[in-house]
Design brief:
With about 650 residues, this protein is an alpha/beta fold. Helix content is about 30%, strand content about 25%. The chain has 21 helices and 30 strands. The protein binds adenosine-5'-monophosphate-propyl ester (PRX). Adenosine-5'-monophosphate-propyl ester binds next to helix 12, strand 20, strand 24 and strand 25.
């Protein structure tokens, strides 16, 4: 397709209607689901819960004492049983649950029966190490099947897992282990990244020097790298698995028992342990997964996220497996060994549903259409995006070159805290507008409000909130109810604040504009400005630092840092790189600033608050906004002039 056609599509500001053929076969075809859910929200979620297998039925759908919710009160179930055991009764037993594609093109298929065996055995390994219901287990693994196996094994015995993304540093890992007081750590001898090896075990060893709660480390052999194994503490996964018994009965969990903790960045330096429980979470992720991706028995579903993020939890592991889907799991990056890697995988496994991130799409755009064009993508039928607002250009490109104008795109808005997708089209029903995540899922009440928490009229913008509790909502911040209440419910009583700004248009469609708090969204990953700032200030040369998110063509936003050096410290060659490396060491490469700018002073209000808004104006070359509250207006003028130079 020519560039002209692409331009044309962009200009038309078009609405994309579901194709008749797609509509006729869609999982949800009738708009009355919205009305039904609207008129009886709890009835809707009660009915949705029947899709799961319960050991004991719930007595009440919701118990709501704002802001604390209990869903499916009295119900008993097990997440791993729902993801595995119940599929073994019929032919799904031999269906591929996980198709694993290694970075080097090696492949491994786990049927539901295989998965059952692996998960049961590993659950027994954990038990043999004294892990009991309620004990926390930290998982620090690459994108290999053992990551999913470990999560499901924890779920099986009722031990909440805390997965830490493999790109996080030793220090970030240590803090997360300590906050959760994890008893066991599961890691690997390394992970492959573009042909080299990331030393996960070495990071783990460094982390453990400051993490006393961990009694045992289980090490998966993936790269074959030489690693240090501490006698009595460290055990090889494969050796333990050899000895383990094959049956491990699933623990009967209360609907409100904790399923996992997942750390996410907030506005302070300390990441928050977002707590999800079992019943509501499983109902939310499995329902949304089926309806939004229009899941069919024969689909081959591929979500390109990492299991270290919420997308991996909800839409690689729990949602799809609860639905008995075939899930592709890929270990590597999109450009290794070549820039057509994703399309090679789609072709190889005849992927039908592809769920990825706007930043990836923009990268593919930059590389040009020849890579997808060289592969057979005719199997694709639904495309999804998540993690940040998708710009209409990227949407149209995705639709044109990947979907070949046949596939609906589901733009899914949600968060670590929401657990499940909150806004997205139902692809057989909803008209699509490029750049809008369209409308709330049935039974979800999202609104745009003003400063006073009052809904704004159609056509205007404000703060994005959730009005009513929803099944997969976070229950608290691990060990910190106060922080939970203040962060999410502190602005307007009984209303959940997302941290995002949004507008809704005349048709009631939502357009999420991005974070309005001090959180930066880099390539769909949340990074707190305060975290990067404290990493910078930790460097001996730095007195003070202020970080902002700066628009970036591919990443959406990039971190830019304004730094003042300590008295007597001179800027020197290499200092910028040293500071960038320091941030990567403290947090992980994902937080590394793109730009560091030295300044004698930072613009502050009279009460000493750094005005990041003005720093953003400077970094993006805009006219300066209101400077009247500054203690010293000349600071920002000087800074602007210096920056432009
Ligand atoms: O700002 C929104 C953005 O990502 C934030 C949530 O980040 P995280 O908890 O890391 O979860 C990402 C994956 C669910 C949101 O507050 N965001 C996520 N999806 C979208 C989005 N912004 C616009 N459109 C989306 N589809």
């Amino acid at each position: 397709m020519g560039e002209e056609r692409l331009e044309g599509l962009l200009e038309e500001n078009r609405v994309f209607k579901p194709g008749a053929e797609f509509q006729a076969q869609a999982a949800v075809q009738e708009g009355k689901v919205y009305e039904e859910a609207e008129s009886d929200r709890l009835g809707f979620w009660g009915k949705a819960a029947e899709r799961l297998s319960w050991f004991r039925p719930w007595e009440k759908v919701l118990e709501w004492e704002p802001p604390f919710a209990q869903w499916y009160v009295g119900g008993k179930l097990n997440a791993s049983y729902n993801c595995i055991d119940r599929h073994l009764a019929g032919w799904r037993r031999n269906k591929a649950a996980i198709i694993f594609e290694g970075e080097h093109g090696d492949s491994r298929v786990l049927t539901y029966q295989n998965l059952y065996r692996e998960v049961n055995k590993f659950a027994n390994v954990l038990k043999s190490l004294g892990v009991e219901k309620g004990d926390r287990v930290t998982i620090y693994l690459p994108m290999i099947p053992e990551a999913a196996i470990a999560m499901l094994a924890c779920a099986r015995i009722g031990a909440p897992h805390s997965v830490v993304f493999g790109g996080f540093s030793a220090e970030a890992l240590r803090d997360r282990i300590n906050d959760a007081q994890a008893k066991v750590l599961i890691t690997s001898d390394g992970s492959f990244r573009r042909g080299s090896v990331v030393p996960l075990k070495e990071n783990a060893d460094t982390a453990l020097a400051g993490a006393g709660s961990v009694e045992h480390v289980i090490v998966v052999q993936r790269t074959g790298s030489e690693v240090h194994m501490q006698e009595g503490r460290d055990l090889w996964y494969h050796e333990q698995m050899q000895k383990a018994a094959v049956e491990c009965p699933p623990e009967e969990m209360d609907a409100e028992d904790m399923l996992f903790i997942l750390y996410t960045s907030g506005t302070t330096g300390k990441p928050k342990g977002v707590v999800h429980t079992t019943g509501g979470y499983m109902v939310g992720v499995s329902t949304t997964h089926e309806w939004i991706f229009d899941l069919k028995e024969e689909d081959v579903y591929w979500c390109t996220a990492d299991v270290g993020w919420i997308t991996g939890h909800s839409y690689i592991v729990y949602g799809p497996l609860a639905n008995g889907a075939t899930v592709v799991m890929y270990e590597g990056t999109p450009d290794y060994p070549a820039k057509d890697r994703f399309w090679e995988i789609v072709e190889k496994y005849r992927v039908t549903i592809l769920y990825t991130a706007p930043t990836a799409i923009r990268t593919f755009m930059k590389w040009g259409p020849s890579y997808p064009e060289s592969r057979d993508l005719s199997s694709l039928r639904v495309l999804g995006t998540v993690g940040e607002p998708i710009n209409p250009e990227a949407w149209i490109w995705y639709h044109t070159y990947i979907g070949r104008e046949r596939c609906p795109i589901v733009d899914t808005w949600w968060q670590t805290e929401t657990g499940m997708i909150m806004m997205a089209p139902l692809p057989g029903l909803t008209d699509l507008k490029p750049g809008s995540c369209t409308v709330p899922f049935p039974g979800v009440k999202v609104e745009v409000v003003d400063h006073d928490g009052q809904p704004v009229p159609k056509g205007s913008g404000g703060y994005l909130v959730v009005r009513e509790p929803w099944p997969a909502m976070l229950r608290t911040v691990y060990g910190d109810n106060d922080r939970y209440v203040q962060t999410y419910w502190g602005n307007w009583p009984g209303i959940y604040f997302t941290g995002d700004g949004a507008k809704w248009d005349q048709d009631g469609y939502f357009w999420v504009l991005g974070r309005v708090d001090d959180v930066i969204n880099v390539s769909g990953h949340r990074i707190g400005t305060a975290e990067v700032e404290s990493a910078l200030v930790d460097h001996p040369a730095v007195a003070e630092a202020a970080c902002i998110g700066k628009n970036h063509e591919v990443k959406g936003q990039a971190v830019a840092a304004f730094v003042t050096l300590k008295e007597g410290v001179e800027t020197r060659n290499g200092l910028v790189d040293e500071l960038k490396a320091h941030v990567a060491k403290k947090i992980g490469a994902l937080a590394r600033p793109d730009d560091i700018f030295f300044t004698a002073e930072l613009p502050k209000t009279r009460s000493g608050k750094i005005m990041r808004r003005l720093l953003r104006d400077i970094a993006e070359g805009r006219a300066l906004g209101d400077t009247t509250t500054l203690a010293d207006a000349s600071v920002v003028q000087t800074l602007k002039e210096q920056y432009q130079e």
